[in-house]
Structures are given as C-alpha cells and as structure tokens.
Amino acid sequence: MSTINLTSLSDKIVTQRMSEAIEFQPIRREVSLQQIRIIDSQSIEYNGHVVKITSEAFKDMMQILKVPTAFADRFKEVVGPEAQQKFINTIKNVMASNGNRTVTLVLNPRKMEIVAVHKTSRNLISNLTAMDFITNVINDSGLSVANFNINQDNGGIAINTFSTGMQFNVPGMKDEYFIGGISFTNNPKNGFQISPYINRLVCANGMVTRGFEEQLKLTKLDEKEMGRFMDHLKELRDNRYQPAGFVDAVTLMSNTNASLAEMYMVENAIRNVSDIKRDEIEPWVPIKSTEAAFARIGIDTHILDSSKLKNAKIGVSVWDLINGLTHFATHDNGYEINNYDRTRLQVVAGQLLTKEPDMSKMVRSPF
C-alpha cells in the first residue's frame, strides 16, 4: 500500500490558533424581549442602539417568535417593510406579555454583529473552556492535531485530531486504509460537539462523520454530564475511533452508483465555499463528462426536476464523489477557500456517507 504520511500542526501554530479563538470568542447576553425592536432582517435595536444581525440569527429570532421566514419575506413583498416590521414586533410584544420574556443574544465582538439568538439561556461553553477540555483529551489520548480552524463570522472553532496508532481497513477493498481520531467543534449554534474524524491514508483525505451514533453534544458541565462524556470518549478510543457501521457504509457507497442529484449536491457544496469555476471542477466532480453523456441520449439534465435527478444514475459511485469532495477539502488545489469551510466540506462528505444513497431506492423489475 502506498500511503501519504499525515502531518500534524506544530505546537506554535496550535498556540497561535488558540489565541485567535479567544479573540473571536462570541459574547452572550440574556436580554428582555421588551428591550429589542426588530428593524429588518439585517438589524435590530437593543436599548436604543442599532445592532447588525446575521441572516442565521434573524432566522433564530423568527423561529423563537414562531414566524416562518418565508412567510415574513412574502409579507414584506405584499405589504412593504414598515408593515412587516410592525407585524413582527407586535408578535414579539404579545409573546413577551405571555411570559416568554427573555432571549439570549450571541454577539461577534470583532464585527459587533449578532450571530445567534437562543430562546433560553443555554449552557453554551466558551472557546476557552472548550480548548482546555480538548487539550486535556489530546494529551491523555496521545492525539495529534490535523487542523485547527476558526469561523471568523461566528467565533466557532473546529479541531480535527488523529492517532497514528489507530489504523483500520475495509476488508475486500484495495487501498481503503484509514486512520481514526476525533473532531471537536464549538460554536454559538450547536454548542460543543465531538464526532469521529477519519482520514483515508492513500490520499490523506479527511472526513468528519456525524451521521453515526458516536456523535455527542456536551450540554452541561456538571459531574454527571462530564462523566457521560468521558465514558463516550473512552468507547471511541477503545474502538480505535472507528465509527460503528463505517465499514458497511463505505462498502455500500463504493458499490452504489451516484445520482445526478448527489453529483450536483457535491458540486454546489464546493462552489458555495470556494472561487472555483464550474468548468474547472471536473477533476473532483465529473460534471462535464456526465452531462455530455446524458446529452448524447437527448437528455438535458438542467431541466430535470428534483425527483428525476434522484433517479438518474451516473457513471461513478457515491464513494467516488465523497473522495472527490474530501480531496478538494483537504488539499491545496490553488483555489481560494478558508480553513473553516474546508472543515464544513468534510462534514458534508460525512453526511453523504451516512445518508441513504438515491440509487438504493431503485427496484429490480422483470419487465
């Protein structure tokens, strides 16, 4: 087997990233709904001060107020922004008067922008506390840091680690050797989570697998919750960081042709976070060759609806798409993409691995 040696970040780089993570650490404040006035989808007024709000945080607010964002947008188109503002604030005031009086605002201190809104004062963990915990786990388990990325928009962190002694393979498949580890994330939306982190040794492609049962979220810092969390980490380590069902999933995906829908999903995932052009993506996603093959039999793939896209088989496996996605995410291919988005692509790859493949729904027929 010809493999690529995985490299880990130096202590100096890790220390630098830790300092940056503290600098970007979001600020949380529990406030009364009465202190807030919704201006529009990009700003609110708090205690007389106008504060910017991200689209995701605005969605959080609308979810708390039980106002679907699609309805709010349509309402604005029909009656105008002032009527929309009045409507939303009326809903907010009614909710506040009925006992739902507080929300937690999460602020990016560098951009002075609200990046998340929570209904209750959730026990979110600071980056400093998360990194202290992660450092202890890394030291106790002998893990190496593959990458340490910071989301400069919301202050979230993502740290992928691996253990060189934890290797495993997929029986019956050539060159499918892997090395296991743990992915740690902490962000204002989902809190502190751990998931298995898998690297394919032949090409050093990394993948965060969150669809398996080994994913765990830490919601409290009390003794009982910490004990449960540490027991979970021990089980992961005892299983060589190999997710239950991983081998079966890889075998299934390598033996199942992908659909047009799955191919376009991977294309969109890459293009949404990088500056790659559509006609340059062929080495990772076979867009040109696939569309040309369909065109030769008179099918324009761009006019197919979603159900037809899911039922259109292409010439590569789902596993091929996953490897194209993880290769783009893990390597420097000459395109602009920030490090946090690289981790997001690895998560998308894990989601593709753990979903039911579109072609598995096809039924053999004697006709």
Description:
- The chain is an alpha+beta fold.
- Helices cover 40% and strands 23% of the residues.
- It has helices at residues 11-23, 55-64, 69-79, 81-97, 127-141, 223-238, 246-254, 260-271, 287-296, 306-310, 318-330, 339-354, and strands at 27-32, 36-40, 43-46, 49-53, 102-108, 113-118, 144-150, 157-162, 167-169, 177-187, 191-200, 205-208, 216-218, 257-259, 313-317.
- Strands 7, 8, 9, 10, 11, 12 and 13 form a seven-stranded antiparallel beta sheet that branches.
- The longest helix has 17 residues, at 81-97.
- The mean pLDDT is 87.
Order of helices and strands: HEEEEHHHEEHEEEEEEEHHEHHHEHH
User: What percent of the residues sit in helical stretches (DSSP H or I)?
Assistant: 40-55%
What is the molecular shape?
Answer: globular
Give the oligomer, counting copies of the same chain as homo and different chains as hetero: single chain
Q: What's the total number of strands?
A: 15
Mean model confidence by pLDDT: 87
Uncertain runs are none
Q: Span from first to last CA?
A: 44 Å
SS strand fraction: 15-25%
Structural class: alpha+beta
Q: What about the largest sheet?
A: 7 strands, antiparallel
Report the radius of gyration as a whole number of Å: 23 Å
How many individual helices?
12
